Amino acid sequence: MRFMLVLTYDEAAAADRTPDPAVFEEMGRFNQAMVDAGVLLAGEGLAPSSQGAILEYGTGEEPTVTDGPFTEVKELIGGFWILQVDGLDDAVGWARRAPFYEGEHIQVRRIFDPEDFAGVAPPEVMEAEERMRAQTEQQHGG
User: Fold this and answer.
1) pTM for this model (two decimals)
2) I need a labelling partner for 90 at 20 to 30 A (CA). Which of 30, 38, 98, 141 fits?
């Protein structure tokens, strides 16, 4: 099963502290342990919200775009990992090892697989999804 570990944090509170260089070393060891165990499929940190935008969809045809920073949002996504593990307990086990500050959180969320929608989504939608996944893998050398 695939799981996404999503780091969330209070960006305003984090702005008041300078990252300890040791945290980068700890994070490198954490990531390397997941690579060595063969569970890490992807993982990235995200830039501050000042370098992003929020799109809000309403009744109009075009979404409203608001440039960051997102001062009205209490918790922001700061990074993520995608793991291939046997189940939720394994994903939580890896999340417990992450080197983070007080007040930071990790959401552990299972990623849907196409078979989760078998018998629900129309067959032509399932076939189109399979084609898109194959095309994406081909384009990105996966």
Assistant:
1) 0.85
2) 141
- Quote the Cα angle for 47-37-39, to 5°: 55
Number of folded domains that form the chain: 2
Q: Are residues 137 and 103 in the same domain?
A: no
The answer on 77 and 124 residing in a single domain is no
Residue 133: closest CA among 102, 119, 112, 110: 112
**What one-character DSSP code corresponds to residue 18?**
P
Residue 81 reports pLDDT greater than 70? yes
Helix, strand, or coil (residue 26): helix
Both 104 and 121 in one domain: the answer is no
Please check the confidence at residue 22 and state whether its pLDDT lies above 90: no
127 with 62, same domain: the answer is no
Q: Tell me the per-residue pLDDT of 102-133, one tens digit each, with 9 for 90 and over.
A: 788 999 999 999 888 888 999 899 999 899 98
DSSP strand E in 1-142: where? Answer: 2-9, 40-45, 53-56, 64-67, 76-84, 105-110
Structure tokens at 99: 């080197």
